[in-house]
Amino acid sequence: MFLIAASGILSVFALLAQTETPSIRTKSTIADDRVLNIPYSAQRRFTSIDKVADGKLSRSESGGNEARDSQGRTYTAGERKWTYMEGNKSILKSEMLYRIHDPVANTDTRWDSSLKETKVIHWSQKMSNDDSQCHAECLESATNTLFDAVEKLGVKTIEGFVAEGTRRSYTVPAGLDHNSQPILVVHEVWYSPELKLVILETNDDPRSGTTRNELIQIVRGEPDVSQYQPPRATSFMNCDCRSVITQPRQPRPRHDPDR
Asked: What pLDDT was estimated at residue 247?
């Protein structure tokens, strides 16, 4: 069995393995880890047009859904697809990946449709706050250093919500990546101030192809979260990370060559 391709869509969380281009978010999208009193539910659609080895284009699409309640809990369910070779036959497989991020209880709950195990990670409040600050600083640094040009695109209405657009781009010089001419890579993000999230994100790289990650069928209001419950026939694995932050770091013993 030989894995030859994989694609999938999950939501804004970078917790799940997949092959699409990672999200580069603007500073305005990184507010607090917990967004209060802006509940919604929506479908997520990820479309990828990839350049394959023979120069042809391969189009794939995957879907999922997500929600946020008034207390800031977020719920995501994303489809992951992959293709592998079994003999001379190409086999397409897929699974659903789920996550509940609960900043009230400081837990992350994760499971997928192929395994009968649910992982619950317990975080300390201090760790959660420190991680959010670190995450924001890292994303801001990546945004500032990766792209050469930044352009504000104004506003437009997407799925009934006003969104602010930002286009970032950089040029790959000729000869740097086996290219005879300069290559322009363009990344666009459309952020909804009302929902406090990105609702459309595109990436165009002539070397590899294009991706489109979007929210559709967005509904304001308290979501029905019954679809985000782990299956009954599952075992739970609890990971407690709260003690990691509370225990003082012990100094490393110094090596004395004379002893």
From this structure: 38
Stated pTM of the model: 0.73
CA distance 69 to 126: 23
User: 190 - beta bridge partners?
Assistant: 165, 200
- Helix or strand holding residue 137 (H, E): helix 125-146
At 32-66, the pLDDT tens digits run 468 999 999 999 999 999 987 777 888 989 999 99
For residue 78, what are the β-bridge partners?
64, 97
Beta-strand runs (E) in 69-196: 74-86, 89-102, 107-112, 117-122, 149-158, 161-172, 183-192
Round to whole Å and give the CA distance between 213 and 203.
9
The CA–CA distances, whole Å, from 154 to 67, 91, 195 equal: 27, 44, 17
Tell me the CA distances in angstroms from 95 to 111, 213, 215, one per residue in order.
11, 18, 20
Model confidence pLDDT, tens digit, residues 106-141: 999 999 988 889 999 998 775 545 555 555 555 555
Containing 218, the helix (H) or strand (E) segment is strand 209-220
Are the beta carbons of 217 and 45 closer than 8 angstroms? no
